[in-house]
Recover the amino acids of this structure.
């Protein structure tokens, strides 16, 4: 049961209705994250706008999904881990081993993608104040200043949706059930 109202196109605030309509057409369903964000139309607009900007980054879709899944796992957002697992698997073409490593915050066999995951962890842990060695390790994997800042962009996007989901606690959409994830920290409690 969601702690915040799950808005529909019909009962959403007027400013959110066109955004939800477009999102439903694009996704083929209305993700519950967006239904939660619709309670604050500016938050919904910010998420969708930032998502569009992030989609234009120089990082590949696979690299952007590494950032998203890593951040969601750190933030304990099962909804976002599931949603980005779907994108990583269906659209970014990441193999099952890579996706499972991301979901468990393990080492990824692909060294470049592992560098993105480790740098994402460092950005979150240091709130951007990464150590010189962490930045150099990221750059030695073939990335540059632009890519480093695009990881920060991706973390910003993830933080908005991870925290909104953690606040609202919406149920996972049926379309994402096969990608469900349980936070190991919560499972141990």
């Amino acid at each position: 049961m969601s702690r915040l109202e799950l808005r529909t196109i019909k009962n959403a605030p007027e400013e959110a209705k066109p955004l939800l309509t477009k999102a439903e057409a694009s996704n083929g369903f209305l993700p519950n994250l967006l239904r939660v964000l619709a309670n604050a139309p500016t938050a919904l607009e910010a998420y969708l706008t930032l998502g569009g900007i992030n989609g234009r980054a120089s990082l590949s879709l696979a690299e952007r999904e590494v950032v998203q899944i890593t951040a969601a796992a750190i933030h304990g957002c099962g909804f976002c881990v599931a949603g980005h697992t779907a994108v990583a698997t269906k659209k970014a073409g990441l193999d099952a081993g890579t996706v499972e490593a991301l979901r468990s915050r393990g080492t990824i066999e692909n060294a470049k993608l592992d560098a993105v995951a480790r740098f994402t962890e460092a950005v979150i842990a240091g709130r951007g104040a990464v150590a010189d060695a962490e930045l150099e390790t990221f750059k030695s994997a073939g990335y540059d200043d632009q890519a480093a800042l695009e990881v920060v962009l991706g973390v910003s996007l993830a933080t908005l949706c991870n925290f909104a989901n953690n606040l609202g606690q919406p149920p996972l959409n049926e379309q994402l059930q096969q990608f469900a994830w349980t936070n190991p920290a919560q499972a141990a409690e």
User: Anything to note?
Assistant: Residues 145-168 form the longest helix (24 residues). The two ends are 20 Å apart (CA to CA). The chain has a mean pLDDT of 96. Residues 45 and 81 are 21 Å apart (CA to CA).
